[in-house]
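Kindly go through one protein, given below as sequence and tokens. The question is how this chain folds according to its tokens.

***
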Amino acid sequence: MARCDTPEHAVEELIVHFDRAVGALKTAVARFTETGATPTRDERALFRYPELRVRYDGRPSARGRASRAFGQLIWPGDYAVSVTQPRHFRPYLLEQLKPLVEDYGAALEVGVSEAEIPYPFVIDGVGSLDPNAIKMRDLARHFPYPKLADVGDAIVDGDTILRHDGARPLSLFEAPRVDMSLKRLEHYTGAPWADLQSWILFTNYQRYVEEFVRWAADEVASGAGAILSCAGRVRLDASAPNIAEAALNAPWRKFQMPAYHLIRPGGGGVSLINIGVGPSNAKTITDHLAVLRPHCWIMVGHCGGLRATQRIGDYVLAHAYLRRDKILDDQVPLEIPIPAIAEVQVALQQAAAEAADGREELKARLRTGTVVSYADRNWELNYKDERKRLSQSRAIAVDMESACIATQGFRMRVPYGVLLCVSDKPLHGEIKLPGQADKFYESAIGAHLQIGLKTITLLQEDVTALHSRKLRSFDEPAFR
């Protein structure tokens, strides 16, 4: 480990170490596939992630008790984490390190970790289906490969206080876990992981994608330097003809959860991901998005209204969740409350108010309350068994993804919110049928998406306040 004078120096050293390790691994794999020469022990020692270490002597913070939700050190000693893709994460790393140095006088060190870089994270597709190529198992015999023991969520779930070397974890995720998720994001969304923005909207309908693409195409065409990145690795700038049409014709159908990213110069971009139907998809994508440490994710989807006074097209702002999907019961037991994030709730309501025609219309069209989420889309077939529970919960809407989105946000320390639109009323005879559904889609989707986008604009005005302390436990890593 080598001492670094400043956070900028530390990040540059991380980049140097990472590039050196990746270069050595690529060179050795290429030599092996061409000649069969295996790496020596000394060469293999080069295939390691860099490590970032913070040393804290226990002095009190120079600014007194900090109100921010991250960048705090409580216990004296060492804090460490292995790091991948430091060039991409440079702004995030600097944001996290500067308070530790300025407020606590922490010392920074960078060196080589014990964690090896698995070759598939660096060279994708080597030895895959080509019968003349080197077999995958032969590569795994001589090169680091992904090991499930290295990619768990023990830190996230509070199972680990100290690392095996005695240091406390500096971040929620070690490098192998991050790299696995970056690859999975590209697999599921069809777009480069580096194009994902810090402000994320989830939907479960392709029609929202079409609205987002039309809006994003106008942003790109305005000439402000924005770029639209689409599923299928299609990237469009202001020089592209028929931007919206080109985006919608991208090969998104190949991917399970296609993503679209409006990339703005200097930040502030927005991603929309069509997660499809069901809480399993919601957990899958949020497991992997969390390693990018986004500022916020918000669900803008559909729900069934449970109250007679609700109308098709009304909005539901979730402030509590009845978790009947069972997806995260092992990681987050049902007795753990999932709080609403006040800053997100206020922004969602303000955005909805600006979209409504006056306060009275907003009161008539927007209800706050409990949303119940099921894993079974045909929950109505068990209504006799569920009726009492729904009544006791005072639920006002039912869907499949919201509880998982919120619980994952709570679990992963990512601010979250849910604004749903009532598309049917199953308890009152207004069941979602093709004709009725099409009429609803035509009138409601555009306005609903715009509320989600306006919410993000409002939240961007004070990002520090958004990262609420209610998402942090009493023994947290220093990094957000």
